[in-house]
Amino acid sequence: MGCLHSKTTHLPSPDDPSSQLDPANGDQADEELQVPAFKEYGLSELRKATNGFSTQYIVSESGEKAPNVVFRGKLENNRVVAVKRFSKLSWPDAQQFVEEAAGVGKVRHKRLVNLIGCCAEGDERLLVAEYMPNDTLSKHLFHWDKQPLPWEMRVRVAYYIAQALDHCNTENRKIYHDLNAYRVLFDEDGDPHLSSFGLMKNSRDGKSYSTNLAYTPPEFLRTGRVTPESVIYSYGTVLLDLLSGKHIPPSHALDLIRGKNVLLLMDSSLEGQYANDDATKLVELASKCLQSEARDRPDAKFLLTAVAPLQKQKEVASYVLMGLPKNTTVLPTMLSPLGKACARMDLTAVHDILLKTGYKDEEGAENELSFQEWTQQVQEMLNTKKFGDIAFRDKDFKSAIDYYSKSLEI
Question: Of these residues, 15, 166, 178, 191, which one is catalytic?
């Protein structure tokens, strides 16, 4: 079940998300993660934060049709959050819900979408978590617009999820419900995080496992229970998603692997932009995770050891790998269209705005004063800038930047 979606880019903007990471106004915060301490919120506070649970603020992948709807909200301290509203029957016992949420809220990690609060008033059951503005893994893998998720980013997702799961194990939170591509969310820097919502028991008895039966761990079909080994199986299905770029039943994938038809498993949109040895190792890891017998699957520590060496561009920021403009989702609302275009470094938009507002280069300006008044150095600078203006006008942005940079050095 998806938590956040790109519908957020079309929301009205009553808030300034630039304060999202500021734990101000008395919130006790973790110094490293800047995450406020877990607390119980009042229903009126969360109702106000979501504009009365307005449908305009729904960010669930399935919209308001989702059984448990997620809203984008803004708290009184200007922190932007995700608010998950459970269906009426999910948690009849309010105390049990609060205790479960508080337990999850103690788990903190840089690879998790950390849970920062809950609310249980009347029939309402709500969770409050960090807000992730850059969509789900599902969106970037299956419904991408501009470019497919590059190989190095897929490896990073696999590693970061393994880190999150390993940390949850150390915190004795070994059960993760329904691990899938919708549970992985991307922050303002493009870094992937595992949703903490999956650590919550998701039914009245805490035993249900709502997922497509084609991807359900075999032991769940036999016993109706989820085990730590079931989580590893689900991790294997996410690896298949990362490798293939589509939903593929594990049984079909394993047939391809056994038949040495690994290339048929790989996402064609990657156009071979990956090392075959690395892809083979990730396929082998997926195969280990998808073993039908739970005891034959590796543990989270093994996942970390297997994936860590496959990271080859650790120094490159995630938003660069993904082709995301830096922090476009947190631009202050007071910026003008030109200011926003400049902040995004969107030269095409800058060009169009300048032309619409009557932009003209300084052609002829050098003739307003006699040549004797200009030194050779200044003349060279003006000529270089003029060439930059011509290149900019022709949308040759690379040449324009080169000329403008040169003019500043003269």
Answer: 178
